[in-house]
């Protein structure tokens, strides 16, 4: 068999008490991730074309 490649499936978004955006993801194998984005420190992203 080949190597396993994690596929991140979105499990939703939430906002922390500090105002950070939190992205929750998981893989079908059971692995989970939490990624935090600081909403205070930056300019808005440009729309993609």
Automatic annotation (TrEMBL):
<protein>
    <submittedName>
        <fullName>Uncharacterized protein</fullName>
    </submittedName>
</protein>
């Amino acid at each position: 068999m080949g190597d396993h490649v994690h596929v991140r499936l979105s499990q939703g978004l939430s906002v922390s008490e500090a105002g950070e955006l939190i992205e929750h993801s998981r893989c079908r194998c059971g692995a989970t991730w939490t990624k935090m984005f600081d909403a205070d420190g930056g300019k808005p992203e440009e729309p993609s074309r």
